[in-house]
């Protein structure tokens, strides 16, 4: 069974309104991106769900399933708030790379990504009272240069790739690995801002700080 959502303190807001938006994510990167876009967050809730991929599950299906699972868990206990959830997946073809938990997992992910193109998919899900849940799936294509064993080991030791999908954070040292990117940069960080803002504006409930 899923554990109850864990409520986290939101960062202080300028002109704070606590009922603006509930962010169903523990990711500080998603919070920072929303604030960068001037979007007020009233509450942050960390949904505890099983993130294990199903057998033969495609990356896009996996991302959408997890985003909707987070959304349903949090929206069910935070009515009538607007709730936003997302899930980011790094894939090599049909292969889903894990969210790296250890330095050795970071090294394994980077070894797979070295010299190759991969996809970063983020599913965004939105619950607005009185309407159907809305979803968007955004894909960005990224190519890494060929990484030396020394570069991989040094990055793994830095700890930057821990708890990151695919074992890297593009907004940090790993940006030096990127040879090519096609699509939304913020999507690779963890939330596609253009599409997310469009969804919030479309529901007519977007308030800016």
Could you explain how this protein is built, in words?
This protein is α+β, with helices and mostly antiparallel strands. The protein has one domain: Maf protein, CATH 3.90.950.10. The protein is built from 6 helices and 8 strands. The protein has helices at residues 28-36, 59-75, 103-113, 149-158, 185-189, 193-202; strands at 3-8, 22-24, 43-48, 83-92, 95-96, 117-127, 134-144, 178-182. Strands 1, 2, 3, 4, 5, 6, 7 and 8 form an 8-stranded mixed beta sheet that branches. Helix 3 packs antiparallel against helix 4. The longest helix has 17 residues, at 59-75. The protein is elongated. The protein starts with a strand and ends in a 7-residue tail after the last helix. The model is unreliable at 7-19 (pLDDT under 50).
């Amino acid at each position: 069974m899923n554990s109850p959502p864990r409520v986290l303190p939101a960062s202080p807001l300028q002109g704070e309104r606590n009922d603006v938006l509930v962010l169903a994510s523990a990711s500080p990167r998603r919070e920072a991106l929303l604030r960068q876009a001037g979007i007020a967050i009233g509450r942050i809730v960390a949904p505890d769900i099983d993130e294990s991929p199903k057998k033969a599950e495609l990356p896009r299906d996996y991302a959408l399933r997890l985003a909707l699972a987070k959304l349903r868990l949090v929206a069910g206990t935070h009515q009538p708030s607007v709730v936003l959830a997302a899930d980011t997946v790094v894939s090599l073809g049909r292969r889903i790379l894990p969210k790296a938990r250890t330095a050795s997992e970071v090294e394994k992910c980077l070894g797979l990504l070295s010299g190759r193109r991969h996809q970063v998919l983020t599913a965004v899900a939105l619950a607005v009272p009185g309407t159907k849940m809305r979803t968007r799936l955004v894909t960005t294509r990224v190519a890494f240069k060929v990484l030396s064993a020394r570069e991989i080991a040094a990055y793994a030791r830095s700890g930057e790739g821990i708890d990151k999908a695919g074992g890297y954070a593009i907004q940090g040292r790993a940006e030096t690995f990127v040879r090519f990117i096609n699509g939304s940069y913020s999507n690779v960080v963890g939330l596609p801002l253009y599409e997310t803002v469009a969804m919030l504006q479309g529901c007519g409930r977007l308030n800016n700080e």
